[in-house]
Records
---
Amino acid sequence: NEHDDKIEIFTIDDSIQGRLTSKNIISSQGSTPCSLDIDSTGKWLAVANYGGNGSSNFVLLPLNKSNIPEENNAQIVSIDGHGPNHDRQSHSHCHQVKFYQNNLYVIDLGTDTINVYHYDDTNGQVHLHCDRIKTQSSIGPRHILFHPDKLLAFVTNELDSTTNIYQIDSMIGKFEHLQTITTRRKNDEKENSPAELQLTPDKKYLLVSNRGDENIVIYYLNDNNNNNQVLSIKGYLDIHGLGPRYFTFDPTGHFLLVANQNSNNLICFSYNRNKDTFEFISQLVNIESPQHIVFIS
């Protein structure tokens, strides 16, 4: 809950009807929580506190035997620094926490950094795996995505409407920058900020949503990375709304759902893997400020 700096824990009592029961509410240990992730052992919950109303940090909270996070023994870590954009980068802004291959990745929009931490799953202690990875200045990295089959990481940059591609070596926390590519059409000039990024289920395309241009850019993943050009733009998908903060595919991989935060609607597209096309199917309206979608099996 970003407005009161709390984390609320629910049990799912009826997955068909979606009935939830609140079990506990705890402090996020910071200001404006915006991202959560659980490590592969199921012992630790990581929280990114953006710091909209104060200082930013990220937190590791131990999960007890009932899978409830405990505030005792929380590990709280801050990132020093700021960026050149005085309006958006006056201090650190941790925007995403992501566990991947025994490391915890923290994406910091405020300092233009990707931070790789090794963590001890027995006590939650973290330490920097290597030097902080500096992106280009003033780009505001927001979210990271790791390719499931290739040693590639994709980062969407909120402040300059670009996507970065890196070759990675997770054993030593090394990132080699390969490419930066725009999320926009050539003549788009209004204010824009990318949000979410995901691969299509067949891993042929990378999608990134644009808030402002109100579309999703579709990148083709090139098989032969000539001159390190991993991505090329295939086209754009009109999202039939405003502020596509989040999108995801359903468990079958046949449908793409887009949460339009500013127009209060949820859009469904079908994805045809054979034709590589998206087709508008339907929408749900009057959904107040949708920001995330989770499917429960």
---
Amino acid sequence: MRDRGTERVITEGDIDSFFDEAEIELLQSNIAVEAIEFMRDVMKKELVNKKIKRRGAEKLISEAMERALLGLVDHGKADIEKVIKESKKQGKPACLVFLGFNGAGKTTSIAKVARWLIDRGYSVVLAAGDTFRAASIEQLEHHGRKLGVNVIKHQYGSDSAAVIFDARKHAGSKGIDVVLADTAGRMHTDKNLADELKKIIRVNQPDLKVLLIDSLTGNDAVEQAKMFHEMVGVDCVIMAKTDVNKKGGSILSVSYAIQKPILFLGTGQEYGDIKKFNPERFVKDLME
């Protein structure tokens, strides 16, 4: 900082020094390099050539950091209830298709979202669209029984797009508000997975494409998010297992990488362990 008596002027070098010192800690918190560079640029735009009094320096820098962090995760709002109400006006059930690799917590998260919706008075049907992974249909049926909701299924190896189509038809005929559709998370090749997901989207035109990311996967989370977004376009993200990984870096990095909002955070094993994501609250908690 250039000295002017009791005032200081912040230079680009000050910001670079700050990030050079903090970079290892930020990377260890699973914040991707591109997200760190975004924060550096925001801080430079906000602070370089600003005159600050020594006493006020910490507050000024802290507020700029808060705005930089918010810029990483504030990408509009995915409002499930608004989507359901809009679909109702059109006389059809809302359809949410869930994407994500096996092991990310996709099926459990679908059950959590079902419980969240049921608790708010919406009727739900589940679609067993993962016809590839062994025991995936039984797993979804287990959740369906516990939640008291129907699961629409075909045989293993059948067409996933057709399963979800039938679930939508069933929901429409029974006046059910929402279809929550599972999908395969890994096939023989990425091309097989991409082709299947593209067909599901083309045939069913879902209202929301929801990506499930395991927050414990670290920087792989960003690559997964980019891959699914390039395949079919992601509308919003659920970050699972955030109770185990409290660093928050994956949340910041994924949202920034695909410029999409975080919908929910998974916070435990029970159906009620899910909470709506609030960007401002999340950033304030990180800063404390």
---
Amino acid sequence: MPSIDSLLTEQPNPTSEKIDRVSTTELLTIVNREDQLVATAVEKEIPNIASAIDAIVEHFQHGGRLFYLGAGTSGRLGVLDAVECPPTFGTTPDRVQAILAGGGDAMWASQEGAEDDTVAAQRDLAERELHNEDILVAISASGRTPYALEAVKFAKTLDVFTVGISCNPKSDLTALTDIAITPVVGPEIITGSTRMKAGTAQKLVLNMISSSVMVRMGYVVGNLMVNVQLTNEKLRRRAERIVAEVSDSTHERARKALHESGGRVNVAIVMAKKDLNAIKAEKTLSDVGDDLWKAIQR
């Protein structure tokens, strides 16, 4: 395992070595310029990100689940991405799950020692009955977090496909996982504070993974989220617009279809587009594996 001192993310950044002696505007300009490097670093990893997405989709199609796992900021970013999937894409809560070292309490209060708990890594995955149709995405800015590394090793004993997201090239995580996504963002503005550029890179990668997987699964038509859950007034209005646009119907017809479908946007679209009742619309979707685009083109 590389020493912490040798990690790129632990090196001092010459660009920011005097940030304590500049004006607030100059400080923010330095931070902003460094942040602009992140998107380029992520862009270089698109081939690896695409491979991970294709693998996740394949596992999803066989009933598998996606697990994000990490400690500290990395783990919290996994939580943020996972919890958005049910309301945005209509997935069940178990389909995309996040595992944070230290458990739920670590979301709100730092538990730095949790990242070294290798026993907990195995226990946390075993409790979720991880199996070989699932995919594990381990997130670690350093690529050497013991909790994440042990989780990958345990997953491999179960023949689980693994993906690693880190920001240090040639890390242990890179070597262990089936697909390594490694946006190299360089030294942080505040030395070693990987919640900054490394955290931003990880968030961008996670956004790309979950959103693209859902597009490939047919939960997006055009650029519209057709499985959105109607949990508040904003989303109810959005759903009405989506149904009207995709089905090429009036807003009145869209509202009626949403009501009769029990708020299921994809069912309402088929109802409005093909002039079917809810039961027949459900069957039409079922016959094409819930692929909405295929259903409305039949």
---
Amino acid sequence: MILLRTWSSWECCGAKVKLNHSPSLPTFLRLRQSLQFLPTQSIQTILCSPRQKISADFIGLLPLLSLIVTSSAGTDHIDLVECSRHDIQVVSVPGDQAKDVADMAVGLLIDVLWKISAADRHVRKWGLSMPQNLSFGSKLKGKIMYHSRNEKPFILYPFYSNVVELAGNSDVLVFCCPLNEQTRHIINREVMLGKDGVIVNVGRGSLIDEKELVWCLMEEEIRDAGLDLFENEPNVPNELFPLDNVVLSPHAASLTSDGFTEVCELAAEALEVFFSSKLPSTQVLDD
């Protein structure tokens, strides 16, 4: 089994190796194999997170790979087509992350509306000469509406089949959908709201056309944004750092102590079942 965390540095047999950059996973495996640190021919399982891309090239280096366990709800970082071609199971063990992510979405929304982070920076720099325009107003009043691939009969809120129409009737958009070919850049210039609009993203970074979002924030074409994810992680656009109309979070919505413990327990259970020659019961290949 291989546990994928960070591969820019590692230790084996007392020898420490550090790279100046993080190579791709295939390059990482070839390097470790050449140093006789990792017998790739014998690896059967992988435990990973969304930060590691499990590509076809990577899978091709592991002929005995049979199971990939990911700690995330999404599987867009894994080449599912290649996994299916090689009969590799993909198991998602996010635990009850949905509640933690929902809490983060609300937290980001309150922060951007109240300008809490911006006020914090102001106090640290200037003291109590606070700006007077930190008004909460009535932005959290109103009704909830939603967009999805299909209308959910158990959801009583108004349904919009078109995200552009939803945006046109909303002051706040919260995105928490999985990333696939249909949802990539679902937040484009057409969806971007007017000057009073707010965008919160706790789904995947590539749901947003990030270049367009940066431009809209800099030009104040939208009011605010709360972002827990970015399109080219771990890179964050430098243009966002000085802006007071955006709150940034390091892909941490699901990183709670309880959530981490639950994910570890579920991952251990899935691996134990696999190595007991039974099929895991939580297989997830797509949303």
